[in-house]
Write a structure and sequence with these properties.
Distance between the termini: 40 Å
Shape: globular
CATH superfamily: NADP-dependent oxidoreductase domain
Number of strands: 10
Pfam family, one: Aldo_ket_red
Family: Belongs to the shaker potassium channel beta subunit family.
Number of domains: 1
CATH architecture: Alpha-Beta Barrel
Order of helices and strands: EEEHEHEHEHEHEHEHHHHEHH
CATH topology: TIM Barrel
Strand content: 5-15%
Protein name: Aldo/keto reductase
Keywords: NADP, Oxidoreductase
Largest sheet: 8 strands, parallel, barrel
Strand order of the largest sheet: 3-4-5-6-7-8-9-10
InterPro entries: AKR (IPR020471), K_chnl_volt-dep_bsu_KCNAB-rel (IPR005399), NAD(P)_OxRdtase_dom_sf (IPR036812), NADP_OxRdtase_dom (IPR023210)
Length: about 325
């Protein structure tokens, strides 16, 4: 396992992060979830990402139980705040001071730790003054409940404003967590250059494009039984945008490139995002321990320039590059 610095800080994380969105507390049994976490630890992963909104707080509890007994100082635990949780009342959502200060305590209790290494604003909150949000984060850092602060799916203007306030309040905004894969490259034009300027790294999710870049979805064929595309409760809506015959045909043509590198298509997809020097880590999920074991082999892989060019040529115009798509991710209102 290789390690990278997160943002302009001295904080190192594993370049493969284990994340439990859509799995822990919902799709898989707790015993299987614990086995996946154990596989991650055995493979050298030290960084774990979750959120209070995942399975309405249950994912944090499952992760906390799975990590119990591990040396806390050897782990990097990330969680997030924004989405509606608990009974989903009018103050159970967003980035108000009330919701943030209550949410961090709930997350710490569920995770079984005194602090998280990184606390992230899961989305931008248009209904709360940014000054209120950043002051709450500053107080949480000063209280020792979080060591660093990050955000997720913020636009370049939001990153600039947040980083400026963080500097004024004497804490570090060191990360952004966007979707990024060989098929979804909307951060490259604006987010990445702005982040480099501000000393912010990317913690990228869905590097395998919801499983599409594994090559398991075939053009013109029924979706594999038990796959995300067949699970209306577990992400079918998110993967649908990639399931066109044109995309799936092009993805099949990546297999020879993966073979040249002695990688599986999934490993190639994870390694591809790690070629971006603004990416600190790629989040992988798993419903079986063996998926973790396979995907960590992407760590430390260097893809030669000529093969990166071939990947671009194979995927062609099915790649989404529209920089404005980031702004679609944060809801204009924060209704519970």
């Amino acid at each position: 396992m290789q390690f990278r610095y997160l943002g302009q800080s001295g904080f190192k994380i594993s370049e493969i992060t284990y994340g439990n969105w859509l799995t822990h507390g919902s799709q898989i049994e707790n015993e299987t979830a614990a086995a996946c976490v154990r596989a991650a630890l055995d493979a050298g992963i030290t960084t774990f990402d979750t959120a209070d909104v995942y399975a309405n707080t249950a994912a944090e509890s499952v992760l906390g139980a799975a990590l119990k007994g591990e040396r806390r100082q050897s782990l990097e635990i990330f969680t997030k705040v924004f989405g509606p949780t608990g009974p989903k009342g009018h103050n159970d959502v967003g980035l108000s001071r009330k919701h943030i200060m209550e949410s961090i305590d709930g997350s710490l209790e569920r995770l079984g730790t005194d602090y998280v290494d990184l606390y992230q604003a899961h989305r931008y909150d248009f209904e709360t003054p940014l000054e209120e949000t950043m002051q709450a984060f500053a107080d949480i850092v000063r209280q020792g409940k979080a060591l660093y602060i990050g955000v997720s799916e913020w636009t370049e203007d939001q990153l600039r404003a947040g980083a400026a306030l963080a500097r004024e309040l004497k804490f570090q905004l060191i990360s952004n967590q966007p979707e990024y894969s060989a098929l979804w490259r909307v951060i490259e034009e604006r987010i990445v250059p702005t982040s480099k300027e501000l000393g912010i790294s990317q913690i990228v999710w869905s590097p395998v494009a919801q499983g599409v870049l594994t090559g398991k979805y075939l053009p013109g064929a029924p979706h594999p039984e038990g796959s995300r595309a067949t699970d209306e409760r577990g992400g079918a809506g998110a993967v649908k945008r990639f399931l066109t015959d044109d995309v799936l045909t092009r993805v099949q043509n990546l297999a020879p490139i993966a073979r040249e590198l002695d990688l599986t298509p999934a490993q190639l997809a994870v390694a591809w995002v790690l070629q971006n020097d603004n990416v600190a880590t790629a989040i992988i999920g798993a419903s079986r321990p063996e998926q973790v074991v396979e995907n960590v082999k992407a760590s430390g892989v260097t893809i030669p320039t000529e093969l990166m060019v071939r990947i671009d040529e194979v995927l062609g115009d099915v790649v989404e590059r529209d920089a404005s798509r980031t702004s679609e991710r944060s809801p204009s209102t924060r209704e519970a």
